Amino acid sequence: MDITQERAEDQDLPFNVFAKACPSRGTLEHVTGRWGGLTLGALYEGSLRFNELRRRVDGVSEKMLSQTLHALERDGLVHREAQPTNPPRVDYELTPLGREVAERLLSLIHCVEGRMGDVLAARERYDGTRGTF
Question: Where does the HTH hxlR-type domain start and stop, copy by copy (predicted)?
Answer without folding.
Answer: 22-120
